[in-house]
Amino acid sequence: MIDILPERISALAPSAIQQALQQTSDSDVIAFSLGMPSENLFPISDYKRVMLDFWMPNSLQYAPPLENLKHQIVALMKQRGVNCTVNQIFLTSGAQQAIYLLCRALIDRDEVAVTDTVTYPGFIQAAHSLNINLSTIPVSFADGICINELENLYKIVPKPRFLYTMSEGHNPLGTSLSQEKRLKLTEIAQFYQIPIIEDDAYGFLNYQAVEPPLKSYNSDWVFYIGSFSKILAPSARVGWIIASENLISKLEILKESNDINTTTFSQRIISDFLDKNDFTKYFLYIRESYKEKRDKMVESLKRHIPKLVFTVPSSGFLIWGRLPLPINTTQLFWQALKNEKVSFLPGAAFGPSSNFHLNHCLRLSFSYCPLELIETGVERLARAIKNYTA
Ligand SMILES: Cc1ncc(COP(=O)(O)O)c(C=O)c1O
């Protein structure tokens, strides 16, 4: 076939997450690979009831963003310690679109953005598709981004256009930043005038008291991304950005060229769900359930894979671990999937550039797998590690 694709598109490769989604759809596989919410927690009967009310023309029409939903997001953000106005809320089709639109708005091709040495692959994908050059900032296994290194990066000319990071329930590290780091990070952003894109996709899923997002420390230099995917349903495809009204007017134009508007139907379902339910109670319920799964995985890992060094997350769905040499986790991924029917994601999937250390790391998600299968899955993984062949 004649190659009609430009080089930029030919070079794009599917993310490890997309590949894992295909590989682990086999129902015999115990999936620790994907950061998907637990299906048992979806409020199906509430959705069904709400949907019946919505089979009317104005739910099926193009429509401007739902004002009521924006008001509800303002109230939700208050719970996270962020004060914002309805005019600063921009609704998106999920956090992924929010990342993409912010990248389009804040940077031109061939310019530099900074991200953590291990970061969310969806951001790497967006950056690559827009020809953004990525510089990386080292992260510590225990407490995330190494602030001291950031200033050195910011002194380089031309200076980076933004930093993309996650302060809470980092994907894949599972870390949450200390108050001191949050403060310093926002001070540096202001000092060097380099904004932060704060991806808070897991921010509402905390298992102990946590610090408020970076956005609450410095409103002007942080663009905040939130999402209903992990707390209500990914298929709703509703997320939001909190930004200045100036930026929002540009994002509106970019979004129109992307998907016109966020699905009206989903916005209405979410808004109605928020109106009719006690959200604080709902949060307590889902947090409790995920905490139980986290604890089960932590306990099982300690018991069955003592040589795995790993973080215990205080928020989010993910545990990041490191295995001793010579285990290469990409090879282990295929062996574990084929021989033991258990999946995880290899560390190499999370590096914007190749990094030797990541080859021994792996990400385990405890959110999707039923509680009663977590220990069995960890036992399978332990067997795969024991029988690993290079
Ligand atoms: C850190 C992070 N950001 C963004 C997303 C995308 O979320 P959404 O479904 O809201 O597009 C994910 C999904 O896994 C994620 O882990």
Fill in the keyword field for this structure.
390 residues, alpha/beta, Aspartate Aminotransferase, domain 1, Aspartate Aminotransferase, domain 2, 7-stranded mixed beta sheet, 4-stranded antiparallel beta sheet, globular, binds pyridoxal-5'-phosphate
Question: Between the first and last Cα atoms, what is the distance in angstroms?
Answer: 37 Å
The CATH architecture designation of the largest domain is 3-Layer(aba) Sandwich
Give the biggest beta sheet: 7 strands, mixed
SS class: alpha/beta
Rg from Cα: 21 Å
Helix content: 40-55%
**What shape does the CA trace take?**
globular
Q: In terms of topology, how is this protein built?
A:
Blueprint: H1 7-10, H2 16-23, E1 30-31, H3 44-53, H4 67-79, E2 89-92, H5 94-106, E3 112-116, H6 121-129, E4 133-137, E5 139-140, E6 144-145, H7 147-154, E7 163-165, H8 179-192, E8 196-199, E9 222-227, E10 239-242, H9 245-259, H10 264-276, H11 279-304, E11 309-310, E12 318-322, H12 329-340, E13 342-343, E14 345-346, E15 361-365, H13 371-386
Parallel strand pairs: 1-13, 3-4, 3-7, 7-8, 8-9
Antiparallel strand pairs: 2-10, 5-6, 9-10, 11-12, 12-15, 14-15
Helix pairs in contact: 5-6, 5-9, 7-8, 11-13, 12-13
The structure holds pyridoxal-5'-phosphate.
